[in-house]
Amino acid sequence: MLKYLLAKEEDIPQGSAAIFFGVSSICWFIIGTGLGSFNASKLAFPDFFHNVYWLQFGHMRQVHVHAVIFGWIAMAFAMSMLYITPALGNTKLWSEKLAVWNCLLYNVGLCLALALLWSGMTSGREYSDHIWPIDLYIAFVMVVPWSLNVWMTILNRRTQGIYTTNWFFAASMFMLIIIFLIGNLPEFFHLTGLNEAYMTWWFAHNVLGLLITPVAAAITYYIVPKVTGNPLYSHRVGHLHFWAIVVFYSTPAAHHLMSSPLPEWLKSFASVEGVLILVPAIAYICNIMLTMQGKWTMFVTNIELKFALTGVFLAIPLNMQGGFQQTRAINWYIHGTGWIVAHAHLALLGFSTFAEASAVYYGMQVLLRRKLYSYSLANFHFFMLLIGFSLYWISMTIAGLIQGAAKIYEVPYLDVVIAEHPYMIVRWLGGTMVFLGNITWLWNMYMTARVGTVVPVGRLPHELAYER
Amino acid sequence: MAFREYKIGCIMFGIALSTSMFVTIFLPGLDISRIGSTEEALKKQLTYGWESAFNYYDPFLLGKDKPIKVVLTKDPETGKPIDKTEAYVFTAGTHFPDGLTHDNIMGTKQLALSKSKGLLAQATEKRGGVFLVDVDVTTGVPYVEFATATKGWQVAATLKAADVRIHAGSGKTMFIREGCWWCHTLLPEETQDWQSFGRPPVTGDFNGESPTSFGSDRKGPDLLHVGSRNSSREWMTMHFFNPRLVQPHSIMPRFNYLWGKADINGKVIDRQKWDRDFMAYARGDTPYPPAVPIPARNSEARYIIDFVLNLK
Ligand code: HEM
Ligand code: HEM
């Protein structure tokens, strides 16, 4: 990678930056889930490693969250954008050199950001935990160059229209920058009180809703038609999805603070808009499902589709859960319990991780021009993720319901802690499966790069048969 | 421009996004900022100071740049006995919370009273001073009194006359840094928490506080009123050193490293030995657990315990 930093633009092979981003994302996935699994062990057995002070839960939790969100999710997004955008525009990336630098500075910035968080330097605001100098670094050094590449590649496209995936990419990057700068206003200008609390959740909600959700969806809009060979079922429904996301997903931030003394109109408004998020969700899921017409066998026989569609399937319970849990009738029961943690992992470890994993699997094969080394290993990885995640989700949901019941019956808190103990252990085991599965993934990718069958010119990796 | 065909789309996108931000940021911002500080908010701000998370004056979150809350039973100026009074001491240079420096955060009525009765206009960060929170008897409006001007209470004399010094401001910094808010909320819910965790806060209760750190997931009890449920300093000291000492099933981490090197008597704390003794007790080999060292006066453990006990 380093040798490309100073190379001339023409000398850098196309796709280098995407490969770097892909490899980094897999490494961060392993690091992030490893940290998650370690945290889970601390919640099950608090005296595990208690003498190592810098491994405290309170310091490590946000490191896990940011390692997976900025390391795995965002870098897998960057990788996908850097190879999908040019492919859809029938052109090459605007600036490969900028992208290579971007990848380097992204990794450096992330290491720095996590180290500072780990040492306890935090802004004390969930999801915007980074201190403001790091926020500025993220916005201008990590995100702006990446966005420029996406936008300029779309502008330089050699196709007439812009495909659905690319609208989402372009718009999400724009929204991400806006959200980052506006959502962090409390830190830049020292806003205080409820305004600060509300802006914190405005930021958190919109990062999830205007970056992670649409980009993960956009990835499946690319992978599913590409691999099946079916055209996207409906461009119109894609439009509906896009506009409904922009309008409905950018508004319900207050549903994260339903039990706080925010103005009542704001909470009611957020609650209604939150239910309306079901519009883009249903549009999206139907669109993908209908695109699969006649090709459902590929769900079993093809690893990219297996991941992508599992992601889409998981989006169904995710959005049902989301839409209902934020109405007042239900939120008071499950707010602040393990249920929310389960929901968060259904969103990020379920829906979006599966969608991204499909893009990274596919992208690495396309970019390296090599067929996947082992289908069996990939299947193993898939099931480790799926079973691990399911254990996590089920155990935390049950723990959340117990906590909710304890809230109404005013059970002493210690009894709740005791009741949750078995579920904490199951969560730890499930999370560890995810972590171990990811290690096999890295191995599989390494072997693909080393000994995978070369894909002949003019063919695509999914057209070749698996060998192992 | 190759977005040309998408001109209408781009304009619509801009309109949609700005309308959304207008409705979800600007309007709520107006609505929230309209509400003045409650008594609770004034007290909180004077306890916690300007900022409890990362900031220029305390980048490593060590609990610097914080006021000290004191409890007085005699007048620091004259030495005469007075009713038990809580005062907030800002040593010279300590930054004021936003409520003292931004009129709309304090609220119109509160500000008018603070200026007329409390002589607030005379307070400067450079010189520091002593503050009180009062409530106007006739209108019930809370206001801030600058006791250095109204009563002549000086910083040094007040600290000297104090019965107790409460480092709750520095403690809040510890609360943020140590991630207590990942497991504890500071927000009893309006629906069902009254009985177990006490009164939920109202809109004006947060004015000027930063960060508010409500917390979103609970793995332990809500802490907003924990000091009224359990005001035992001994219990808290043991609980922070090792929660399993008082609550065998607790999953709260140990915070014994906040004690620093030595205890209040300057005796070096040997955590390894403490652990061995504790394990012997846990196995049933010894009848009593090892004693928990009392935290030194300026230790981080002292700060966090002060903070928790101050959450009334
Ligand atoms: C119909 C769609 C959805 C709705 C209405 C919804 C609603 C909510 C609500 C109300 C909460 C907060 C609950 C509480 O604390 O009381 C929440 C939490 C969360 N949601 Fe969703 N959700 C939806 C879909 C999604 C999607 C698609 C994602 C991400 C890709 C997502 C990610 C999260 C995360 C990470 C949290 C945890 C926040 C925390 O740390 O407290 N949700 N959701
Ligand atoms: C890519 C995959 C993952 C993503 C994107 C992810 C994301 C997150 C997020 C957003 C939170 C905050 C949740 C909230 O506040 O509601 C969180 C918390 C947590 N995660 Fe993950 N996570 C992932 C994988 C894992 C794995 C494999 C484990 C291992 C068990 C794990 C363990 C935890 C733990 C223990 C917490 C703290 C939860 C709590 O406060 O109760 N995560 N994660």
What attributes characterize this protein structure?
A: 468 residues, 17 helices, globular, B: 312 residues, alpha+beta, Cytochrome Bc1 Complex, Chain D, domain 2, binds protoporphyrin IX containing FE
Provide an overview of this structure.
The complex is a heterodimer of chains A (468) and B (312). Chain A has 468 residues and is mainly α. Chain A has a domain at 297-310 and 337-468. Chain A is 76% helix and 0% strand. Chain A is built from 17 helices and no strands. The longest helix of chain A has 39 residues, at 413-451. The mean pLDDT of chain A is 93. Chain B is of the alpha+beta class and 312 residues long. Chain B has three domains: 1-35; 39-166, no CATH class; 172-309, Orthogonal Bundle (Cytochrome Bc1 Complex, Chain D, domain 2), CATH 1.10.760.10. In chain B, 37% of the residues lie in helices and 10% in strands. Chain B contains 13 helices and five strands. Chain B has helices at 7-33, 39-48, 98-101, 103-106, 108-116, 147-150, 155-161, 168-177, 194-197, 226-229, 233-241, 271-283, 300-310; strands at residues 68-74, 81-90, 129-135, 142-146, 164-166. In chain B, strands 4-3-2-1-5 form a five-stranded antiparallel beta sheet. In chain B, a hairpin with a 6-residue loop joins strand 1 and strand 2 (81-90). In chain B, helix 8 packs across helix 13 and helix 11 (233-241) packs across helix 13. At the A-B interface, helix 2, helix 3, helix 5, helix 6 and helix 8 of A face helix 1 and helix 12 of B. The structure holds protoporphyrin IX containing FE (HEM) (2 copies). One protoporphyrin IX containing FE (HEM) sits between chains A (32-33, 36-37, 39-40, 43, 61, 64-65, 68, 72-73, 340-341, 344-345, 348-349, 353, 427-428, 431, 434-435) and B (182, 216-217, 219).
CATH class wording of the largest domain in chain B: Mainly Alpha
Instruction: Report helical residue fraction of chain A.
Output: over 70%
Mean pLDDT score of chain A, rounded? 93
Number of individual domains of chain B: 3
Oligomeric grouping of the chains:
heterodimer
Give the distinct bound molecules. protoporphyrin IX containing FE
SSE topology string of chain B: HHEEHHHEEHHEHHHHHH
Shape of chain B: globular
Count of extended strands of chain A: 0
Radius of gyration of chain A (CA) equals 22 Å
